[in-house]
Amino acid sequence: MYDIKQWRHIFKLDPAKAISDHDLDAICMSNTDAIMIGGTDDVTEDNVIQLMSRVRRYPLPLALEISNLESIMPGFDFYFVPTVLNSTEVRFHNGLLHRALKQYGHMINFDELVFEGYVVLNPESKVSQYTRAITSLQTEDIEAYAQMANDVYHLPVLYLEYSGVYGNPEDVLAAKQYTTETQLFYGGGINSLARAQEMSAIADTIIVGNVIYEDIKQALKTTKIKEKAQ
Questions:
Q1: If 135 and its partner were Cys, which of 38, 114, 123, 163 is the partner (CB 3.0–4.6 Å)?
Q2: How many CB atoms lie within 10 A of CB 166?
């Protein structure tokens, strides 16, 4: 069984975006720790299963980050269920999980389920607008969400999601100081090795997504953060 605590680098693939076989092969044969499939809009059963079948040929962990119930299917090693801590709507806190348990609770292997606390921090992002997240947060707010995830909810993962823009390392460090048990994920704007190195020195795990579709060479360079650790 894979141990997500050991993951330092994850490539996140959007099933709604096209990726060539050549680029997918490069991503899946790289030094990344895992592949995560997930997105905000246009995530369907068809495009998830198509991307899953292409990635499944490679010997590395594969996770589905659930954005809707229609795209859930067997075949993944892990299922990440987001709870958007700074959303103004309860359905993005536990509504999706509640519906999933009603529909699939009798067949879920809970060793594969990861409840993932999200703090969405880019007001211009699709996920921010979709979840109606309050993104005008001070450092103290981020610290409080980190305490909430770590000490109150005991969540396995807290994900600081900047979705396409590069975040403030000081805010990530503030969250890290409070996540003594919860694994801290960082995602957003990592489009170079330098940014990957900066954020991986703070967060437990970095998520690299958009740059895959913008500059595959820069995306692959981000995996070099693991070389010193090995």
A1: 123
A2: 15
pTM of the shown model: 0.94
- In contact, 203 and 167? CB cutoff 8 Å: no
As given in the structure block, the two tokens for residue 189 are 């704007």
Looking at this protein, which amino acid is placed at residue 123?
Answer: P
Residue whose token pair is 């979705």? 163
Residue type, 63: A
Q: What is the spatial distance between Cα 65 and Cα 72, in angstroms, rounded to a whole number? A: 9
216: its two tokens: 């595959």
Alpha carbon distances (Å) from 194 to 89, 121, 190: 36, 21, 9
State residue 154's pLDDT score. Answer: 97
- Contact between 156 and 4 under an 8 Å Cβ cutoff? The reply is yes
What are the strands, taking DSSP E only, across the chain? 9-13, 34-37, 62-65, 78-84, 113-120, 157-161, 183-187, 205-208
Q: Tell me, what's the pLDDT at 146?
A: 98
Q: What is the mean pLDDT of the chain?
A: 92
Classified as helix, coil or strand, 133 is: strand
CB 137 within 8 A of CB 167: no
- At 116, is the secondary structure helix, strand, or coil? strand
Pick the more confident residue, 212 or 109: 212
What is the C-alpha separation between 142 and 119, in angstroms, rounded? 8
